[in-house]
Amino acid sequence: MSAEQIAVGTGPVDADDVVRVARHGVGVRLAEDAVTEIARSREVVESLASDERAHYGVSTGFGALATTHVPAEMRAQLQRSLIRSHAAGSGPEVERDVIRALMLLRLSTLATGRTGVRVQTARAYAAMLDAGLTPVVREYGSLGCSGDLAPLAHVALALMGEGEVRDADGRLRPAVEALRANGVEPVELAEKEGLALVNGTDGMLGMLVIALADLRRLLTTADVAAAMSVEALMGTDAVFAADLQALRPHPGQADSAANLRALLAGSGVMASHRGPACTRVQDAYSLRCAPQVHGAARDTVAHADAVAGRELASAIDNPVVTVDGRVESNGNFHGAPVGYVLDFLAIAVADVASMSERRTDRFLDVARNHGLPPFLADDPGVDSGHMIAQYTAAGIVSELKRLAVPASVDSIPSSAMQEDHVSMGWAAARKLRRAIDGLTRVLAIEVLTAARALDLRAPLEPAPATAAVRDAVRATGVAGPGPDRHLAPEIDAVVEAVRTGAVLAAAREAIPAHALS
Predict the structure, then answer these.
(1) Domain check: are 195 and 221 in the same one?
(2) PROSITE patterns from the xrefs (predicted)?
């Protein structure tokens, strides 16, 4: 774990901090500014603890059992029972970065003082996260309404010292053992606290924030891949001119076109076919319209980022303790705002990948690749070149189209029809993560193929930026053109270079005067 910490409770959590905590092991602490507000709202809850009037989740059951009165002496047990019964997930373990993001966002809501938890409970939650203890959470169980109930319940169960966690080294351990080894005493939940620990959109929001970070990198990488393809396919950069793009003033389109101009600047390949001798009037859509498609995806990311920002500033629980001391039921736990943009992003991901695969395919067809060998093979017929790499990309794109089917249009009523409309936002987030992995792989195959094609254009020299990316591909251990080799490891090497940002870094370093956005 990192020795660095962020303070939670000084204001809304920053999206960059979510990624740092989730993926880079940055620790957390509860800000002292939050303690006073947490304590104040706890006083309100404790004043209701022995109240005979109905207060949802304090003196009543949950969901369809909200009309069931719970006597005062059973109200602490009510919270423990809630966590145990709701920790009902099934399936594979959810990834560590998702759980850490979920925990940070739940802690952020606790720190607002709107949930009624005790200070010691919030501090214990922060300590568990800071120690790098990651509760085992299963993939299935959230309907994205009343919060991500099952995933959050598995985390709360670990806070109680039950269930299992993975420690900072990834070892699976009983929660009580791991907590005490890190100086955290298991929490005996009091009134309202179990409900406060499970009633949020933190899982789907955490996955949205992480996805946005990935997509910003991948969409710029898509511009890099497109530039390599336009260049190696002897296309034109004239269509990316700023004045032509300004005729349709979408901001994402302008940014993508500016990237393409910068990436292709100084290309000897492009210069070789400029002038009156060139008979090509215009390129295929997958080359010519890259800024329009990539730009639309960028604008979709911008919209999703605005939604995420509002959600990061939210305090989601039911009931909530208001600033003036009321305890009120509400519907802010419904995941529709997050679910919609998660689905919207999956559509954009599928389309960007689809266009990338079409550019890859053009390289392999002698009728369309402008003088390159069939399938970029060394000895066509004996060698198959990148023929099956395109099959792999096509198979992924086909799956991405299925993953683009919205989850948020579905709803299965639950809790005896009390929860009769749910968001399925968690499912939307899970499929977006898979889609982003697919886009990474499709772009990597395009970069791998375009790098080979640029080598085959020798002695023509590519642009400084695209040459740098080709060299970065070679630096992964992927050799240049030659007889057929085991291709899967080469694809995997470039996938990792795309995923880590090495491909994008190579392009940026080659053209420091042009900030690729």
Answers:
(1) no
(2) PAL_HISTIDASE
